[in-house]
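Hi Prof. W.,

I finally got the Gamma-glutamylcyclotransferase prediction working! I wasn't sure whether to trim anything, so I left the full sequence exactly as given:
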Amino acid sequence: MPNLFSYGTLQKEQVQLETFGRILRGEKDIVVGYQLKMLEIKDPEVLRKSNQKYHPILEFSGNSADEVEGVLFQVSDEEILHADEYEVDDYKRIETVFKSEKKGFIYVGK
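And this is what came out:
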């Protein structure tokens, strides 16, 4: 099963229920070399699910001192596609290695 790293609204139970149909279980992890920025969300469905106008977005810095904490969830291949649908077009999904040395997917700014 793939790992999906959440540093924002995908950690909210309501978002998980509406996106995946279940509450996800995960463990804390860290992605290195990124900084958090904020993105204004305009998609009405994402706004409704998250109840949050501004969402965090990862921006690559390349600096090993930059770390972003989040949660690494195990999801199915089908659930990854649901997460892709949830994230607005300003995000893209890439694979990376976390501080724990596990591999997984993150959403970063395009």
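The first helix runs from residue 13 to 20. Does that look reasonable to you?

Thanks,
D.
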